[in-house]
Amino acid sequence: MTSQPLRDAVPAPSPRAPRRSWRSPGRILMGLFVALACFLSVVPFYLMFVWATLPSDQIFAVPPHLWFGSAIAENFGKMMDATDGFALRQFWNSLYIALLATATTLFFCSLAGFAFAMYDFRGKRAMFTFILLTMLIPPLVMDIPSFLVMNNVLQWIGTPRTLWVPGMANAFGIFLMRQYIVSALPRTLIEAARLDGATEFGIFTRVVLPLIRPILATLGVVTFVGSWNNFKGALIMKLSEDPTMTLPLSLRRITGGATNVNADWGATLMMVVLTVIPLLVIFLFASRQVISGLTSGAVKD
Amino acid sequence: MSDRFSPPRPARSRWTYARAQQRLAPYVFTSPFFILFLVFSLFPLGFSLFLAFHLWNPLDGLGNWRFVGWENFALALGARDQFWTALKNTVWIGLLSGVPQHLVALPLAFVIHQFLRRWQTGVSTVLFLPYITNAVAITIVFGMLYSENLGLLNYLLAQLGLGPVRWLAVPELVPYSVGAVVFWRYVGWNVILYLSGLQAISEDVYEAATVDGASAWQKFWFITLPLLRPMMFYAFTLTIVGNMQLFEEPFIMLGQGGGSGGAGLTSAMHIFNTAFRDLDMGYASAMSWLLFLAIFALSMVNNYLFSRDGGREP
Fold it and tell me: Coil, strand, or helix at residue B101?
């Protein structure tokens, strides 16, 4: 069924007559196909914003309300009540973990990527291959063992560290950085800085970091989004007290995930929006950067 | 890379601070990864392998485990447990979401690339949106759409004189309802992967085909598909590995038990429940290793399918 538009497209793309071809039924069908995909991608976001502004009893009205209401303040108040006033604290918890994860990941991954890109040292190839191989371990296999280390050895359970420390220097980030630095920075630049008397770490902070801003943005957004959305990790590491809870955990509780008692749909939707807004903001500013950064890595591979 | 065994080695090998820090720098710079890997991955993985052969409740503390040999694995692979059911559910939901994902994403990317190039950035930005969205938040929204009496989907069906459909209550329907969310979240990501693969194909190839009188359909079939194989392999691998670990969508939408009849209980959920609800760490470890083997096997099948009949290795 999905290949239908292509079949119709057969007569369309004649480069000889590009002026007229947009009218052809094949092209219109293809345009509709793409427009439908975009529409369906956006609809759930539109609905969550509309619902978050409706009074709780109108969210499920029949026929459905599809335009914004004026119950924002009311729903916000309900959300605060449903979380015993901790909703914004939980927003901050998620933000705190995501920011720390992002800052540390950027630092350690670019440092290691720089080393793999710009130095020749004994064991380099073996070390890099090893790092790539660790990417083959499915994250799921790590769930139980990392809980056990946090719980029985380090006794970090319930603290934010459990979520940002283990991934500070991760294989994906190092790989991404190394690929970028190899192709973007000439070695002569490093040599020149060295002749000027810079230390190796000085070269990294003063020469390399300013020149790799685009890929820092890519990895930064990916890390931030991954951390912000990390539900399972927080669940396993038991950040489950009101003051330590992250936003996704709180969101699950407010829907009654654990107790099956729903607090309130207005409150729930307000929290859904609160969870999604930072992602949308980042997305507006950096989506192009992230898309090109991520896919260029995939192509070069 | 070629001169990797030649660190600067001046004739007079007198020790200087500058030279020492230059030689040590790469080791220092890469050490955080290895330290973190040792503490948070290698040691835990070994521990989990050890536990797979033991019976242990973490509340009993370290050391208070009992060796049970292959019993955990036998229990998982036997008929008494939900391991097979959960694996079956996982694969089924994975197919229901994964196959349409690529069947839609590939033509979509082709159409965008061939005919709507002017809007490519805008369109891929919009399609990227579902991918970065919070799974918990979006699953709640889908859950509301699926609501039996008051949801938007059943309202629309009612306008056509159909329904109501019990999306989340009929065990046979549950995998479709969950699969739809997964499909929605990842179609755009695959479109973006395929678009970047398409951009890497030289225009000359298409021009030569046009000169030879190839139709759009022929170009898609004989040029695009073969040259896109490496990217397809990559995208398929991501889908397989991701779907086999599916957790958040069914967990949020259906609850810990996987909904009515456990039709939405995936392997990841079953392992999670065994480990953190039943506190049977040894058994859960054994199952996660079995799932790892399953993921590995499926990746190998994928690899085999892509590497035979003359396909270029990615």
Answer: helix
